[in-house]
Write a structure and sequence with these properties.
Blueprint lengths: L57 H4 L25 H4 L9 E4 L20 E3 L5 E3 H7 L2 E8 L2 E7 L9 E2 L3 H16 L8 H4 L13 H5 L17 H8 L15 H5 L16 H15 L3 H13 L5 E4 L12 E3 L1 H12 L3 E2 L2 E2 L3 H9 L3 H5 L11 E3 L2 E3 L7 E5 L3 E6 L4 E7 L10 H15 L2
Antiparallel strand pairs: 1-7, 2-3, 4-5, 4-15, 6-8, 7-8, 9-10, 11-12, 12-13, 13-14, 14-15
Length: 456
């Protein structure tokens, strides 16, 4: 079902839209440390006034409408294209601005998604400030572009807003990392990848870098000591070099830095000890993606197609953003439709089984759900906003009474899996604030209230 406007009950958000935190001026392509799941992204120099979800709807604002669009409504691959409210159009149109590599769905039919509509939108919960809200209100408050809820294997709720619809891919941001982590764990289950091995066994090019004395497992669980800052307030932070190397940000005239992801990864140096503390840094996902390519002998796009997308019965091709030599961004460059994201989430919830076949080994899903080192996580920058959590195979694990775990990306991207409630929720969004600390409080309360409602 497509609903292209937000509910009337969401309109009070217009009065709340000016926020102290603002990552609207931050690049949409990358993440600050821990921001995908919880921590607050570094504030920009000045926080602009933000407008509500309804008023920032890209169709209402007129982005890229006309032949050609007027200059003030044009979005191109130039600095600032990914800032709010332009991001509300951009996140559903990535491949129109940057090069990409397709993830083929195969020639077979799409797998069925049975439907059993429920009145999810009216489910109520109490917000962090004590206000009673509905699930539908949460959609506007989190600048949702699309949401799909599956309960016991059936679609019970599906809504789209703004630039997104059922057949259009949306950027998954750091949800991409969980795909890469899953592929790595699958290769390990196949005996093609040894998590205990040194990184340099697969990537001798990284000898002498931060990863020269690290293990693959330390990369998979992000316990790497590496000098790499994602502080967007610092113009000299390494995140800018990473983004320019991968072509995710436009390069200034006279740019002479690394020209590819591989070139950039070779520049990273060690800082601190490995296996001491969880430290969420996007470059670890890029290293793991490189390892996955070497271990499998395939590109990420081809491996994902053959191992997951085709067996799963995906409805549409997915795609990755790529650098100047065609290397996929394993840290945040995957784009999928919402329904195919739900198929993947259901595959994970079903212990790797979906579409009548075992696609992912059950042992892989069990390892993800078991979580990582909780003590290392407790010492991390992510712990204050996600207390009691851990990180395993590039998935976030809550260790709560429902066994909830998730894949998360900045600006509100999410695969939320509640095994006890037999619930999978997938959401694409274009929140003005990059770090999910801006939307986690209302998101978690709404999702948990829905889970408890469905369990009654």
């Amino acid at each position: 079902m497509s609903l292209k406007t937000y509910p009337e009950s969401s309109r009070p958000w217009r009065r709340l839209a000016c926020m102290a935190l603002c990552a609207a001026s931050l690049p949409a392509w990358s993440q600050s440390a821990g921001s995908a799941a919880g921590s607050v992204a570094a504030p920009a120099a000045a926080a602009p006034t933000l407008v509500a979800a309804l008023d920032s709807d890209p169709n209402r604002m007129g982005w890229m409408q006309g032949f050609p669009p007027p200059p003030d409504k044009l979005i191109t691959h130039t600095p600032g294209a990914d800032r709010f409210p332009r991001n509300r159009w951009l996140f559903s149109h990535i491949r129109e601005l940057v090069p990409t590599a397709s993830v083929w769905r195969g020639a077979g039919p799409a797998s069925a998604l049975p439907r059993a509509e429920r009145d999810v939108g009216s489910v109520q919960f109490t917000d962090a400030d004590g206000t009673r809200r509905t699930f539908d209100e949460m959609l506007a408050l989190t600048y949702t572009d699309g949401i799909l809820v599956m309960h016991k294997g059936k679609v019970i709720y599906e809504r789209y807003f703004g630039a997104l619809d059922g057949h259009t891919p949306h950027i998954a941001m750091s949800v991409t990392k969980s795909f890469v982590g899953t592929l790595a764990a699958m290769l390990a289950a196949d005996g093609k990848l040894d998590p205990a091995a040194s990184v340099t066994r697969y990537l001798p090019e990284l000898a002498g870098t931060a990863y020269g004395d690290a293990t693959v497992r330390q990369v998979m669980d992000m316990t790497i000591g590496v000098r790499y800052s994602e502080d967007y307030a610092n113009p000299k932070a390494e995140v800018w070099d990473y983004a320019r190397a991968g072509g995710m940000l436009a390069r200034p005239a006279g740019y002479s830095g690394p020209g590819t992801f591989y070139d950039f990864l070779k520049t990273l140096q060690k800082e601190g000890d490995h296996n001491a503390v969880f430290a969420y840094k996007t470059v670890n996902a890029e290293v793991l993606a490189w390892i996955v390519r070497r271990a499998s002998g395939q590109s990420l796009a081809k491996l994902l197609s053959e191992r997951i997308w085709q067996p799963m019965g995906a409805e549409q091709d997915a795609y990755f953003t790529v650098d100047s030599i065609g290397t996929e961004s394993g840290g945040g460059g995957l784009n999928t439709t919402l329904r195919d994201l739900a198929r993947f989430g259901e595959t994970i919830r079903g212990n790797g089984r979906f579409n009548g076949k075992q696609i992912i080994p059950a042992s892989v899903v069990a390892d993800i759900r078991s979580g990582g080192d909780r003590d290392q996580f407790a010492r991390s920058a992510s712990a204050p906003v996600l207390p009691g959590w851990s990180y395993r195979d590039m998935w976030w694990v809550s260790h709560d009474s429902h066994g909830m775990f998730q894949a998360a990306g900045i600006h509100g991207q999410r695969i939320y899996i509640d095994p006890k409630a037999e619930l999978t929720i997938v959401r694409y969004a274009s929140h003005p604030v990059a770090g999910n600390a801006a939307n986690n409080p209302i998101t978690f309360r709404a999702f948990r209230a829905l889970a408890e409602t469905l369990m009654r």
